[in-house]
Amino acid sequence: MIRFDSISKIYATDLVLKNINWEIKNGEKIGLVGSNGAGKTTQLKILIGDEEQTSGYIIKEGNPKIAYLKQEFNLQHGRTVSQELASSFSDIQKVSDKLNEVEKKLKNINNLGIDNDLQSLVRELGLHQREFEALGGYQMQSKIEKLLPKLGFTLQNSNDLVETFSGGWQMKIALGKIMLQEPDLILLDEPTNHLDLDTIVWLEEYLISLKISIILISHDRYFLDKICNKIVFVNNGISKTYKGNYSDFIQQKNIEEEIQEKQYSLQKKEIESQKKFIDKFRASATRSSQAKSREKKINKIQRIERVSEQITSSKFNFPESPRSGKLILKIKKLSHEFGNQIIFFDADLDVFSGDKIAFLGPNGSGKSTLLKLIMKQITPELGEINLGKHNVITSYYEQNQSQALDLNRVIIDLLFSKAPNWSQKEVRTFLAGFGFNKDSVFKTVGELSGGEKAKLALSLMLIKPCNFLLLDEPTNHLDLKSKENLESALINYKGTSLIISHDRYFISRVANKVVEIRGHKLIAYNGNYNYYLQEKLKNK
């Protein structure tokens, strides 16, 4: 068992955590939820010792082995997949290096010509071999080989360099390193961001099967529902624990907010009644002391906060744009390869005004490549990709676009540079729609969390009106409230959109068509995500 006991964390410019109190028991799977910048990742860093709390204690029973998959995973370029997975066995690797060193010396023993050295090396070799065996060194390769197919790798491509794989495949390697460590507690920070749908389903099943404890930061509602049996909600630096999965948490929270709103109304009514009495009898010769007594009482009352005043994530909408013609995009007999791999072969697709299309397919199937082809960042090898002839205005949000932001720029200055003709009020109002309020607009990009950077990058894309949106993983790193706001904006959007996302709930809310990339073709389903799933079941 591990417990956060009255943890606070204060940075030079910000109080992130005020009073964090929660615990994780053996076998519990906890979802750590809250808005971007609420301090979720900070808590994980405190737990593993990467950061130190300002006050409070982390209380651990025994010495639990903790493994942490960070938002930004680091893999060593120049290593093969197998070598990278093997690097998770750091203790075994150290002993293996010692064994190799001794074996090299033994090969050169004839040059030494001293029996004492031979005996010493043999003893050292035996010592390291026993240590290697005790650590499970002889089972290491077997464990890696058993894991490879679960991650989707073959023995053949496990010898390929890690840098040759897409972001999704690299995330699988990072996950594999965690799993091989066999920890008591796994910390997962946005593990689904780079995974395709099939791998997310696999990861769900894998995590559900584990008997160990998990702390999970995720903004994927389906994922949280499937895995978690407890939710820790962080708001305004304070934690609160809820039993059940994410849907249970939402239900309980809604009930709490209803009760709080009623209590607020009753208290407000009572205070107003008391104030009327005080104003009426303040100057009365006979009842002034009673009025003063009541005034003291209401001044001591702890005010109940209104629920609506707690909501800090503002809604936004896409700006109005000129209407386009009926045909937005025509793809005809597209053939294209990436490296030596064929991605598209004789693929066709028509996109019409008002279509909101979700592109589905495994990592490496060409979803992001297709958007780059449409935006003419890449030239197709064969076939045609043409925008409609009448007034099609595009806007493109690239995957990990937030990583291209200048970390030294101040948020409000960055907005002024993109919209020089806007007034201070217009810029502040626009930024408030993305949750940047008050003094937060004067932060530098480098001070923002991953989700806040994603919201900023999204806001920059929306400054200029467009009627054809291309969005590549727009929900990556967005908190749940921001996702809901983006969903609402896309549902209300009058234009056309092409969307790549692995968030099943998000897709089910915003897409009215689905295009699956399968067998190098673009296979269209003229219905929403649920219709697509039903059609897939029929054809199984």
Helix percentage range: 40-55%
In round numbers, the mean pLDDT is 88
Instruction: Name the strands of the widest sheet in spatial order.
Output: 5-6-7-3-8-9
Number of strands: 18
Structural class: alpha/beta
Return Rg in Å.
29 Å
Give the count of helical stretches.
19
Low-confidence stretches: none
Terminal CA distance: 44 Å
Strand content: 15-25%
The biggest beta sheet reads: 6 strands, mixed
The best one-word shape is globular
SSE inventory with pairings:
Layout: E1 2-10, E2 15-24, E3 29-34, H1 40-48, E4 55-60, E5 66-69, H2 81-86, H3 90-107, H4 109-112, H5 115-134, H6 137-151, H7 167-180, E6 185-189, H8 197-209, E7 213-217, H9 221-227, E8 230-235, E9 238-243, H10 246-281, H11 288-300, H12 307-310, E10 327-338, E11 341-352, E12 356-360, H13 367-374, E13 382-387, E14 394-397, H14 411-418, H15 424-432, H16 450-461, E15 468-472, H17 480-492, E16 496-500, H18 504-510, E17 513-518, E18 521-525, H19 529-538
Parallel strand pairs: 3-7, 3-8, 5-6, 6-7, 12-16, 12-17, 14-15, 15-16
Antiparallel strand pairs: 1-2, 1-4, 8-9, 10-11, 10-13, 17-18
